[in-house]
Design goal:
The structure is a homodimer. The first copy, chain A, is an all-alpha fold. Chain A has two domains: 47 residues, Arc Repressor Mutant, subunit A (Orthogonal Bundle), CATH 1.10.10; 142 residues, Tetracycline Repressor, domain 2 (Orthogonal Bundle), CATH 1.10.357. Helix content of chain A is 76%, strand content 0%. Chain A has ten helices and no strands. The radius of gyration of chain A is 20 Å and the shape is elongated. In chain A, 35% of the residues are buried. Chains A and B meet through helix 9 and helix 10 of A and helix 9 and helix 10 of B. Chain A binds a DNA duplex through helix 1 and helix 3.
DNA sequence: ACATACTGTTACACAGTATAACAAAAGGAG
DNA sequence: CTCCTTTTGTTATACTGTGTAACAGTATGT
């Protein structure tokens, strides 16, 4: 296993090999089911020796994680930045920007959602998005108890993922502008409204 | 492959073997990840010969499908029956009954949700629930266009699944009575409200 | 140009899949 | 109960993919 972190300068051969492996995996996932992909296939497509795979990764899962983390970090900072400016009047715009971003990176998202086969990844994504909304969605903090808030942010995260999945399967048919309205209405406003009504009953 | 359908009388040996294999798989799934389960393990736990597996199933996936279909048919008829009597005033009761049912069959549901690893199964479940709500949820039929209705029923189905998943992971902590309120407020009322507001804008 | 680090080739042990042939046991019809 | 059919068990085998090892070859940077 070549060293990776200590010196900031990574051997260009290592960089190249890892890029080849990541790209090969991406191409394969877009063509077939992740579960049916073998290490041999990846190394052949990447045109590196079979054993070279093991010199960088322990399993295909780990390689997949790296691929997704690459894009996921980017997505998260993007969504987080959008959520930070949670001006209620601009929620529709926030939604539009999310779906425009997805439109750009459609390939990555198809892979990410296909890879829900690997349940851990879905949970990680849900957990990340959930935390973001829990921190930034101001109205939720005031209303309701902790359990309700956990439930609500989990609801927002999973609903958003499902909506994205549905949208990609429908070939991104309603435009991002329309989806922005849907996002505001179906995901955010709905949830905030439900939490407040649930909390009102609790009092 | 022993014949199964033509005569209503199934050989008792076949019945026994298939039951042993199903039970063995269920026990194993509750203990470890489905992806790491081998056919050899299943046959050993079931105390049948290795090759006997292939005399009844083509793959572990197929066996898993049979196990889930068994319980899924039951769940679907249950939810459908509840949704049929969609008296708006009894939505809370409908929700309570769903979560009470899940409480009873917790093991089956843990397996079902763990098996989302097999993406096909999640899609099947979502599609089934989605269709049920699309048919029975009267308010949605009047409001909005077909795309919106598809999206909304998909939203209801995935949200319900996610909520069930969250509830099981939280050791079924808020009582079914509380979850009934959540179901009405967060899943149904929210969605209906959102659809009507989206449709109003469209006009 | 030289030591270092990475990559490629070949070989091997191992586990799981999938099939085949034959023997043994259990079920059903007369 | 007996006989024929069907199912199950045993053993053997080919195949594929995993994961590791040793050694030779190639690229990197100082």
């Amino acid at each position: 296993m070549p060293r990776k972190s200590s010196p900031v300068n990574i051997d260009p051969r290592v960089k190249r090999t890892r890029r080849l492996l990541r790209d090969a995996l991406v191409l394969l996932i877009l063509k077939k089911d992740f579960a049916s992909i073998t290490i041999k296939e990846v190394t052949e497509r990447a045109e590196v020796a079979y054993i070279t795979f093991y010199r960088h990764y322990e399993s295909l899962d780990q390689l997949l994680m790296e691929v997704l983390d690459e894009g996921l970090v980017e997505l998260m900072t993007h969504i987080e930045a959008l959520a930070r400016q949670s001006d209620p009047s601009s929620l529709e715009t926030e939604g539009r920007l999310i779906f425009e971003y997805i439109e750009q990176k459609a390939d990555l998202f198809r892979i990410l959602l296909k890879s829900q086969s690997v349940t851990r990844i879905r949970k990680k994504v849900v957990s990340n998005i959930s935390t973001i909304f829990q921190k930034s969605c101001v109205p939720l903090e005031r209303l309701g108890n902790q359990v309700t808030i956990n439930m609500a942010s989990n609801h927002i995260a999973t609903s958003l993922l499902s909506l994205i999945e549905w949208w990609l399967e429908n070939n991104m048919k309603p435009s991002p502008i329309e989806m922005g309205k849907v996002y505001k209405s179906l995901i955010i406003d709905s949830t905030v409204g439900a939490v407040s009504s649930l909390s009102a009953v609790a009092k």
